[in-house]
Each structure stands twice: as C-alpha cells, then as structure tokens.
Design brief:
Two copies of one chain form a homodimer.
Chain A: H1 24-29, H2 36-45, H3 55-58, H4 74-88, H5 107-119, H6 131-148, H7 152-158, E1 167-170, H8 173-188, H9 198-210, E2 214-220, H10 225-233, E3 241-244, H11 254-266, E4 269-277, H12 289-299, E5 303-306, E6 331-335, H13 336-339, E7 347-351, H14 388-397, H15 399-423, E8 427-429, E9 437-442, H16 445-452, H17 459-479, E10 485-491, E11 494-502, H18 510-534
Helix pairs in contact in A: 2-4, 5-14, 6-14, 8-10, 17-18
Cofactor (chains A, B): pyridoxal 5'-phosphate
Family (chains A, B): Belongs to the group II decarboxylase family.
GO molecular function (chains A, B): carboxy-lyase activity; pyridoxal phosphate binding
Chain lengths: 543, 543
C-alpha cells in the first residue's frame, strides 16, 4: 500500500497495467500534464475558503508510512491530488481569504516556476548557473537602487564585481533576517590585532577579546519571531532580544530606545543591531524609520530594517513615503513572496555597503573559490534554485506602473474596511493602520455599553472578550466561507485577542469585505449566545 | 530602459501597444503560456553543455539597475528569456554534463512545481496549509521509516502528533545540517537546575553553566563546508570544526576519531556531534557509518549523518547496503534535489527521536502556538512552500522499483567510467568509488613514466600537474561540449587537483562517457603543449 493507494476508492483506477514502467525513459516521460488546470480552474471559481475538516479528524487518513513498491500510475496520482490535495488545501485564490500575507499570484508566476524547474540551475556556483549569476546580481542591484538610491558610479563599481555583494536571495524572510544579524556580528567582531575574528574563533572568544559582557538586539515589541530565532541560532539566546515597548500608536518608542542604548554603553553591552520594522507582521505598523536611523548612526550601531512586508512599497515612487527612512538602513529584508506577488520561497537581504559580507565569505576548494563569480561565497544557504527569475519577471512584466496599481488597490480596500468598522455596532478598529493590515475586535453590546460609559473592564471581562474573539475566528476558519486571522497583542493592560485582516489581494472587492464582516457577525451572535448560556467566564476555546 | 529592454534588438517586439495593461485583471491575466516548451525542447535536443561566454565578458550586458516604468509585453519578456536565459544557462539536460550533483528531472516535476505555485500553500501554519501539514508529516515519516525502521507503534504514536516531530523539510542540505547541529546543541545545553537553557541564556552562559571550555564538532576531513557555516552561524567558530584525517582509502579514520574523543573528555571540551558522511561531496566516500555510530554511542555524543548525496540509497532495499549503519544516526540530512530527482530547493533533516526538537520549538502569539499543528514550531525557516509534494510525487510515481532502476543505472555508468580509466594512457583513477562519484586525473607521459618507475614527483612537478588538470577542466567548461567538475583534495602529500565526474544522470550512455573522455584528451594535448611551450612551472591558470 502506498501513501496514495489508500485514497483511491475505485480499484479500476489502479489497474496494474498502468503500473509498469519498464525503462528509465518511461520513468522520465511520466507527466501529469495540464490536467491540474481544470482542478485549479474549479478552485478559482469556488467560493469556499476552507473545505477541510479540522486536522485532528483528518489525520487518521495520513498514517501510512510504508513506501510504495511499484510505481503508481499518473492517473491514480492525479486522482489523489485533485481530490485530496486541491480539495483540502486552503483556497488562497478566494477573494474572501483576507487573513494572511498571501494573495493570488499573477498568471506568469506559474509559468516562471515551470521554467525554473526545467532549467534547474543551481545558483551556488557559476558552473551550474552561468548567466543567472549575472541576472541575480542585476535584480538585487535594481532593488538596492530603489531602496538605497546609491549613485550610478556605485553600481558601476560593485554590481557585477564578484569581490563584492549588494545582497543575497534567500528562501524566506527568516533567512534574510538571520543573514543580516549574523553578518553584522561577523563584521563587528572581525579580525583585529591578536584575534582571528569571530568566524574563526567563535562568540566566546570574540566577547572576551572585545571586552563585552553581553550582546543585545534592540527593536520594537512587535519584532517578528525570526529575530528570536536568529538570536537562538547564533548562540546569543532569546534574552539578547530586547523588546522596546510601543507607544499608544503602536510604534516603537525612540525615547525608550535611546535610554536603552545609553544603558548598553555603560554596561559593556554590545548592541548588535537596532531593528526597525516596515510593516509589523501583526499590525502592519511602520516604525519611525528615519528617527531610528539617526539613533543608530549616532550610537554607531548596525541598522537593520525588517521590511519583509512593507519593503515592496519602496519600489513605487508613489508609495515610497509609506516606508520613508528605509534608505538609512545598513541592511533590509524584503519578502518577494509577500507583496512582490511571487510564490512561497523567495526573499532577499540587501546590503547597503558592497563590503558588508566581506567577513562572512565562505570558500571551498570545489566551489566558491576566492576570485570566482560563485554566488555561494556570500550566502548562508548552499544549493539554491534560480528563483530570482520570479522577481525578474515581476519587475519587468508589472513594472512600477503595474505595482503601483496593485498597491493602490490594497490601500483602497483598507480604507473601505476601516470605514465599515467605523459604522459597525459589533466591531471596532483597534489601530489606525499604517499600511494594509487592519486589526479590530468584536465587542458584545454589554461590554460596548460599559466602554461607552468609560467604565473599565474587569480582568474577567477582558478574558471573556479575548475568548469570544478567538472563538469567532476559529469557527470562521472551520466554517470556511470567509477568513481573517487572529493574534494576541501583548499590551501593558494585558493580552488582547484581535482579528487581523490583510488587504493584499487586489482582486478582492468591497463586497467581499462586506460578506466577510457579515459572516463574522453571524458567528459572533452564536458565540455570544453560548457565552451567555454557560454564564461563566471560564469558557474554554477549543484548539 | 528596463532590465530586459537592452536585449531586444528588434524594436517592433516592443511595440508600445503591447505595453498597456489597463486593469489589475490585465496584470493578473498576464501569462507566458507554454511557449517556453519549444525552447526547452530545443535545449533538450541540443548537445552543447555550455554556450555562454565567460561571465567576465558577459557582465557588461547586465549592468542596468533602473526599474522599468511601464510593464513590458509578455512577448518581449519571452523573447528575452528564450534568447538570454535559456540560451546562456548551463544545459543540465545534456547527457554530457557529468560534473555536478544535478541530473535531468522526470517530466512530472515541472507539473508538480506548477501545482505547488498554483496552490501556493505556506507550510508554516495550518491556516495556510491545511491537509499539506499532514502530508508533510507523512512523507517525513515514510523517509524516517526507510532510514531508521522504527516499529509501527512508534509511528502510530508520533507521526501525526503535533507535539512531536520526526524531521523537517528545508530549502537545502546546508539548512538541514544547520538544523541538526543547532537543535543538538539546544538539547545538550537545555534547561537544568538554575539554568534557563541555551535558547534563552545563550552560548556564553551555557558553557559556563555546564562547565565547558570549548565545543567541537568531529568528522572527516571531507566534511562539507556547510558544517563550517553552521559553526560560524552558531557562534562556535570554524575552529570548533575538527577534521579527522582520512585513511589512504579516503574514509575517516575511526582510531584517530577515538583519540580525539578521549582528548575532548580530558579537556572539558564538549563534543557537540560526531559527523558521518554518506557520500562526500568531493569524492562520494561513505564513512564507516556503523563504526562511527558505535563510537558516538560509547561516548554519548550526538551522531549526525550528512547523507545529502547518499541518503537516497536507503530508500531502495537493494541499495541500502551502500549506506549501511545510517540507522544508527540521531539525525540525517538528505537532499531531495540531489538523488531524489527533485528540482533545486528541497532537502530534509530527519530526527530519530520524536522529541529531538523539543528544546528548539518556536512559538508566537500569531502562529505556531503550543498545541497547534503548525509545522513552523519545529523549523528554523518560517514561511515555506509545500515543496514536500515533489517528494510525495516521486515516492509514489517512481516507487522503490523505479528508484532502484535509476540507482542501478548510475552505478553501471560508474563502473564503465572506472573501466575506461583503467584502459587509458592519459588518465588514472584517483580513488575506487564507493558510490557514483569518480575522481581521476590527467597525467602527461613524462610524469606517468616517472610514476611507473616509482620516482616521486618534485613539488614543482606536482604543482604543474595541478595546473594542467585545472586548466583542462576550465577549458572544457568554456568549450562547452562536455563537462566534469574539478576539486582540490587537501592531502598530506599536498594539494591535488582532480577531475570529478558525478554519474547521476540515468539517461546518459556509455558513449556519452567516451565522448567526454575524448574531449578531455584533446584538450589535454593542447594544454600539455602550452606547458611544454612556456617550459616553466609557474604557468598561471586563468580564473
């Protein structure tokens, strides 16, 4: 029994005659053809966001761990795929999926991924990538130019200079953030008199040599958890990530940051980086990037901007003001699989200085030799696909005009949702959005009435409100007609569960937003009823 | 001027009427269609391995960093892509490309990547991956079962248990090795009385708490450079990677390894891992995996097997003996984009113990919560594509029978090349291969004659031999008719440049190997002539 045979109810589908692939040529010729196209077309017509049972009910179907002996026929596999995979995935094509940083992709993206697979170049070295090495450097240069706007002579000198690097393509934003922080540490604790540098001698020796008791990373309380991952991976530990509280507006407080920088100076604590966020994951806030940049410069600290979400706006002159100050960063992380409409698996980390990665270079005797064009000299990852072509296609096929159109649409939809929330009796807006991420809450009438009278909630009321909001979002996902996500904001007044809408699907309409809110409202009524019914505040929200 | 416009010689191609995409719907509908298919078909018929000039001559074409204002037409982009990208990539479809760990992919892989892009699931959390969460766990379980062969009850307990993990899918082998080493360190230096654990407190505090002066990683001199990358990233520094010399046969010396383990015990040095290699990158050697496993167990050290190349053989009962002892590992890295014939960008790290990742879990308030099915709890990477489907398709569509056929073919081709080298007057085999990687050298008559008389080479002769072999391989790549790679083996007798053939293309024939050797021979003659001509040993090989 193979992984898939379980699912094939019709025994005829599995006729053994299909299962004979006599030669290696047969194995290679095996194709699934364009038959998925129909299934995907149906998916795109389908309104349902989620047609999957909770995984706890579904998991028993995926417990076979015995590998198939004979090959399965292409027809059988296709039947499995269309029924089980397409049928039970999340329908990210739906305009009513408004909850995560994922939107439908332009048609050419699927064509480009096919082309990338067909070429199957490996960007780690020239012998398996050739011209794609130059194209990757060029695309990075184009992003670099949009973000940092260095003079032409800088690019003439550095763009295709194999001894320099303007940035790297990574598999995701986490790797981009890790790259920035790791390379910044390698640079700060580089070789000096009597010391080989941290990349040779390690963190322990580096801290002793440079006379530091501690290393910290400073940024907003809203920093993405990949910063904690970086700190853990780099041996700094989560304790080294110091989260500065946000002001009432949700942005990092520069005054508190300066106090912290002063304290570090006095305590032999090395500040590895100040991190600015251009679009926090939870709320879409853009930190005061210029102000942070001035602080970082004043204290001589590496300035990294996590622009995984918002960095894309820098590519459109019209929208650039949304991420004003981004040019002050030393390094910038941008996810192409977010607002550059590429499929999952491509981000980048841009280096303002073409020499930033110098202390982090990797060399071996079989590739990435000194002097070679091999891009692997500057990446943490090794073998990598030429996914840079996804970005190349977007930059050319949408151009700045096309991208601006798409960004505009997301902001229009954001304004619409905000205005609908303002008119609503059930929901209220939690933050005025900086970008196209909107957080809001459901509030039942009795609490709203307290709030309107200025009577503060008790802890139990607060907890109940959180439980209701969480329950509404979970039921909404399982019901599967519309979707927004939820998060728990850690506020000084306590945890606060909010809905989170991400308006990045430019094909969504105002009516989709109306339908989504109406869906939530109906669920809210039934959830509120259950809360009244149990008449207790220890109601447990299921997983 | 856009990135691409430079290349479009025919101004008609760029007719401005093509360049108007009025609506967002137009931008989304933009497709490049199946038109690449013809270009790829031509590529597959083409014998040339490389039709690209040296990048230093080509780089001037890729210096424009100004982003396109208006969108380019699909036709223009296609014209660019077919001419500049397909035409100047490395032709990995050629059966005469025998030099890297890359082979043509079965037809269904392109179909599957298209499907993955169309679904665009994000494996980090259930809300964007649904059933693909279960499928990823199932595929990892299937690999785990083949590698470790745990009893059925283990999989019943752990396979779909969200509190446990049998392994992770990564973007590549480097990330798989990093995951293993980082998580092993987190486990070893976990929380204990009076200590929060390394993930919170950092390496510095952990070493102090556990009373170690140093941390090392032990393995063969042939360890992949990703182990050094891991050590650098983790704050251990390259010095912590201790390379044990290989024996004359090219395998790590277990006696030397035991001595080192003893020394570490005496020096308060923590041994983070013993690393066994199942198929070294340079030579394809398989370390004595069982013996290393016994040593690791005796000393209580984490045992990681870097089976990026050779791990695939564990999936075929017929070939399993090639990587005998792999089941003794605590963690195993396998690259699906190597001998599991998936496109670039998918590897995995398998965890023998379902609790291995416990001390490395990541949680946030917006995803990867405790108790959730979110796979992001156990990965270093964050947002990730559902590339596990590539593996799922292969396991089902090739099955064990199909994979065994493909493995057989590579080994037959290996034997053929070895026999041809034995008959040759120009080349000699450097190592008897363990798997399907063959290293060999060219040797001119006068040196061969010395060797046959048992007269050792002078340093200058050795150097000349290295230069000639390097020059032959570089000319072969630029000539572009056939290809093998080269590496510099660091031997006790000094550096040694060798050719490196990787016989993983099952569609290659014996005749392709003959043609390749003949090509090298002809180049060798001309290179040898140049060496005679300059009549000096300081001849410089160009980059």
């Amino acid at each position: 029994m193979s992984l898939v045979e379980d699912f094939l109810a019709e025994p005829t589908v599995l006729s053994t005659s299909d299962r004979q692939y006599k030669t290696i040529q047969d194995l290679y010729a095996l194709s699934l053809g364009d038959v998925f196209q129909q299934a995907f077309h149906e998916l795109s017509q389908q309104d349902k966001v989620n047609a999957c049972r909770p995984l706890s009910e579904h998991e028993a179907d995926f417990t076979n761990i015995r590998m198939s002996q004979s090959p399965l026929s292409a027809e059988s596999y296709r039947a499995f795929f269309e029924k089980e995979v397409i049928g039970h995935s999340v329908n990210l094509l739906s305009p009513k999926f408004l909850g995560h940083m994922t939107a439908p992709l332009p048609g050419f993206m699927a064509d480009m991924t096919t082309a990338i697979t067909r070429l199957n170049q490996n960007q780690v070295k020239v012998e398996t990538s050739n011209v794609l090495t130059l194209i990757e450097r060029q695309v990075i240069g184009e992003l670099h130019h949009k973000v940092f706007g260095a003079p032409e002579r800088f690019y003439r000198q550095s763009l295709q200079n194999p001894e320099q690097s303007l940035g790297v393509i990574t598999s995701g934003g986490t790797m981009a953030n890790i790259t920035s922080l790791s390379y910044a540490l390698n640079k700060a604790f580089g070789p000096s008199a009597g010391f080989d540098g941290i990349t040779k001698a390690g963190l322990f020796a580096a801290m002793r040599h440079y006379g530091y008791q501690d290393v910290v990373i400073l940024g907003s309380q809203r920093m993405h958890y990949s910063i904690d991952k970086a700190a853990k991976l780099m041996g700094l530990g989560e304790r080294s990530v110091v989260r500065i509280p946000a002001t009432a507006s949700g942005h990092v407080d520069p005054v508190a940051l300066r106090r912290k920088l002063d304290a570090c100076r006095q305590n032999q604590t090395f500040v590895l980086a100040v991190i600015g966020i251009a679009g926090t994951t939870e709320t879409g806030h853009v930190d005061p990037l210029a102000e942070l940049g001035e602080l970082a410069r004043e204290y001589g600290v590496h300035y990294h901007i996590d622009a995984a979400w918002g960095g894309a706006y820098a590519l459109s002159e019209k929208h650039r003001a949304l991420v004003q100050g981004i040019e002050l960063a030393d390094t910038v992380a941008i996810c192409a699989h977010k607002q550059l409409y590429a499929p999952m698996g491509i981000s980048c980390c841009l280096f303002k200085s073409a020499d930033f990665a110098r202390d982090s270079e990797n060399n071996t005797s079989y590739q990435c030799k000194k002097g070679s064009y091999d891009l692997g000299r500057y990446t943490i990852e090794g073998s990598r696909p030429a996914s840079v072509l996804l970005l190349h296609a977007l930059l050319n096929l949408w151009g700045e005009v096309g991208m601006a159109k798409v960004f505009d649409r997301g902001l229009v939809l954001t304004d619409y949702l905000v205005s609908r929330l303002a008119q609503s009796d059930e929901f209220y807006l939690y933050y005025q959005p900086d970008l196209n991420i909107v957080v809001y809450r459901y509030m039942p009438p009795h609490l709203r009435s307290l709030a309107e009278q200025g009577i503060p909630f008790t802890d139990l009321q607060r907890q109940q409100l959180n439980q209701m909001n969480a329950a509404i979002q979970q039921q909404q996902f399982q019901k599967g007609d519309t979707f927004v996500s939820a998060t728990t904001l850690r506020e000084v007044t306590g945890d606060c569960v909010v809905f989170r809408a991400v308006l990045c699907n430019p094909l969504a309409t105002e009516s989709d937003i109306d339908v989504m809110l109406e869906d939530q409202k109906q669920i809210a009524v039934s959830v509120a009823r259950r809360f009244d019914h149990v008449n207790s505040f220890d109601f447990r929200v299921g997983k």
